[in-house]
Amino acid sequence: MTARKDRLKKLVKVQEQLKALHETRHAGFLAAAVKAEAEARDLIERFDTDASLGALFPEIYHRRITGSLERQKKNLEDARQEAALIATATARTNMVERAYKDVRRRDERERSDRERLDLITQKRVDEG
Question: What string of H, E and C letters represents the secondary structure of the chain?
């Protein structure tokens, strides 16, 4: 195996790991956004009930609802940024995979050519 082929093989593995990291982070941000939205919805529903302390402490409820919605917005923005990083990592991974496959095919072709040349040389030696 050529040194370039080995390096490209390792680089493909690293690129795939990087892509997986971004995908995991993206999923985490989306999950956090859903959780923050659910928390805001729950606070809003509880605020309107008769047993709620919302009438006594409306500022606290409004602050927590606002905080939840801000967290949701931030997590959605972070998820959007991670999606862009996933696209970049995917493009890089595909590019490195193509280069690796090209080098691998070239190495296999060269090895096959050498084997054929050895067979031809051996045949000539045997005939002579």
Answer: CCHHHHHHHHHHHHHHHHHHHHHHHHHHHHHHHHHHHHHHHHHHHHHCCCCCCCCCCHHHHHHHHHHHHHHHHHHHHHHHHHHHHHHHHHHHHHHHHHHHHHHHHHHHHHHHHHHHHHHHHHHHHHHC
